[in-house]
Amino acid sequence: MKKLKLQWKSIGHLLEEAADRHRDKTLLIYEGQTLTFNQVNRRVNRVANALRELGVDKGGKVSVMLPNGFEFPITWLAIAKLGAVMVPTNVNYKAHDLAYILSDSNAGTIVIHENYLPVLEKIKAKVPLLKHVVVLGKAVSRHHNYEKMLREASDQFLIENVDENSLLNIQYTSGTTGFPKGCMLTHRYWLLIGMTAFEYYELFEDDVDLTAQPFYYMDPQWNTLLCIMKGIPLVIMHRFSPSKFWQTVRDYNVTWFYVLGTMPFYLLKQQENIELEKNHKLRFVLCSGIVPQFHETFETRWNVPWREVYGMTETGDDLVVPLEDNESVGSGAMGKPVFTKEAKAVDEKGREVPDGEIGELILRGEPMMLGYWKNPEATAETIVDGWLHTGDLVYKDEKGYYHWTGRLKDMIRRTGENISSVEVEGVLMEHEKIKLAAVVPVPDELRGEEVKAYVVLQDGESQDTLPPENIIEFAKEKLAYFKVPRYIEYAHDLPRTPSERVEKHKLISTKTDLRVDSYDAADKIWR
Asked: What pLDDT score does 310 carry?
């Protein structure tokens, strides 16, 4: 596949060109405040100069542990201009997680909000390579103060020795087992995501984007770049809030956004507000993992087309359903490969399977990570002969669209039958009293594995209003007998990644016996 020629040398060069072209047009909006393209560029220059004064140079690793707001994207863009490397750091990390990320990444500097300093202080002695702590918030005598550094730094900056192949992010993936792995992502990786998006989603000068995911996750980052490329504003929510979401869409005349995970279900469970939810300026919504049986419901309730997109941290954007394709609504189609990618469904020996048969999705082309940071073994296992193995099970239909059926490691094997956890979860979440569901395997001597469902009920509901027997009967009406959960456990909430995916490995690791605290439908008892 021919290598695509980029228009910009690096992300810093892109920002400078956009600032010259769109100077006083709004780029970032956060809680009623705005920054123009020119203001963003000047702030970025100040941060870059301030970090350079601390000794951050090309290749230097900078952890960024900030909440959503102006500072995260500005700091990221400053790191890009320096040719340094950002390590996006989850603000929910506890001491164990934070110590691992800082040590594994070789971070020499951290830019951190004052709220997270107590966690850092607990582990600072364990990360001797960390030399500088820059704090956003009150001045702390023993640390550098973010605002003070900016006030004292120049707003002029010259980009040197940075190009499209320079490493920009070590982006840690949540993973399903063990510690996260750091994906090495270059300037070219990020720029290509923006350019391929242009190919499929026509954006206009009056468009307005919105992001509600945390910035330490990759989606707000590519949203930021896309807005810089097109010269349009990005509305940043402090966090995803179902009760405030549609008001924000209305207040800022948002025309498109991207969501994933359980976000649409939280919105769907809100009491309907026709004035807010239908009278807006949205042209389209992009979403990963649209549950087919809810797709038409989403479009009808919110009066806007929803289109599926598929991608991974390792691969950027991969599959898309075109905006004009209304026939795919409700089909579960993830789409066709973007023009810079090739895709195949293969069996366990790497042989391509016929259309209609299920195999593992593998991908080749750009964008693509360089590999996993300091983990050549995992890189070699994931990328084989240039093809990246996603771990996702798919089949290809007669139109050339791929359909997701499950994960290689998210399947339950019960008495010889393969059960997709996601399929069972989707059925359970159709129940009006269930807010969220997660399905995991439980070891069983007789059947190999049994099906267990964790359920989070809607506000106001309880075990009394929705007993486990009712959940089982509901599932029996919609699923084959072998897919119906044997065990039901109620939960107030479930652990989730920044992308709102349930962290099932944490559910599985909490107990030595997953039957405990569950209702056993076979024996009709509580364990």
From this structure: 94
